[in-house]
Amino acid sequence: MIKGRVYSTESFGAVDGPGVRFIAFLQGCHMRCKYCHNRDSWDRKGGEERDVESLMSEIISIKPFLRKGGVTVSGGEPLLQPEFVAEIFRRCHEEGLHTCLDTNGLVMRRTPAIVKAIAESDLILLDLKQADAAKHKELTLTNNRPVLEFAEYLTSINKPVWVRYVVVPGWTDSLEDAEKLADVLLKMTNLERLDLLPYHSMGEWKWEQAGVENPLLGVNPPPAATMNRLKDFFKSKGIPVS
């Protein structure tokens, strides 16, 4: 029986893919984003061990509400548990439910299990943190080359993708940042839309709870003028943006 470690679940999500969705947030992440709002999801040994059957029972119990939506697996980073993801999505397809994978794309190797998880995903939500390599390293403590290669792979197999980009004041909100991101997105013929997400501080308390200093403590959400400027820029490039 395939088991995985689950951080939490949400029965009626509305922002992690199309329609009303059941969302499973899996435990464990290899990025260390300064703006992470689920700081307690990093530890791969944390969360609760669940088997696929128990998760599917939870999903099926609200299946009538998911007909025009579906199931999203997020994190943490779900591709650290690819077998679990693939089996959940396989079962969802048996139930006629749309599947969506929310990933940071930091996949070092395309193992058979990861390829299967991607194949079972009807839609990928790809969280691109920063297109600039140096800024990405400082923001997440990881290299963005594997992320960009993952984006190229999704394009090569024509997998539908929504890119999500968090606008963090001082980190990802400049037009220079946007231009580098646009260079990546314009090569993605499989891109369906770009979601610009304003940074928020609602997860600050989790850093405090973990006894770790929040590197963005005191940073406010970006003003509407910044969000509108970036949205207009991407539209001017012909990139579909929400």
TrEMBL record:
Could you name the domain of life of the organism this protein comes from? Bacteria
- Domain (Radical SAM core) ranges: 15-240
Q: Which cofactor does it need?
A: [4Fe-4S] cluster
Matching Gene3D superfamilies? Aldolase class I
Per the UniProt entry, what are the Gene Ontology biological process annotations, in alphabetical order? Answer: glucose metabolic process
Main subcellular location? cytoplasm
Name of the protein in its database record: Pyruvate formate-lyase-activating enzyme
Q: Which organism is it from?
A: Pelagibaculum spongiae
